[in-house]
Amino acid sequence: MQNKTDNKSVAAVKYMMLADRLHRSAVESAINELGIHRSQHMILMYLSCRGDKAVSQTDIAKALEISPAAVAVTLKKLEKSGLITRSPRENDARTNTIELTGEAKKLVARSGEIFGEVDTAMCAGISEEELDSLIGCMKKMIGNLRGKKI
Asked: Residue 149 phi/psi, 5° resolution?
């Protein structure tokens, strides 16, 4: 039989997961309106975070934990859409360096704004103290899961 603390734990996790799904749905809906899909967006964001550092398809696959084949298909679509360019690396012609175009940089900037808008809407009416408490609770939950073998 569960005690009150267990019931509250179940409710807390349920609401946390619901909030995550609703947040993701709101962001993805707005990102789709930009004309790109989730996988394309993930790769564009990764490339943007890397800045001017050379990035290969293998680097992307490892970082995003997706198959190299999925990366290749998505990169082909991004290149066809004019959002990335690929050029052979100077020291290894078998590997391409992938870069964002100006249009992609605009999409990345807009997606950052979208995340900000969704985050702001999600936290509307919540005080700084409540947010600090939530952050503290989430850090404890993460620590609990990282320290516990499941």
From this structure: -85, 125
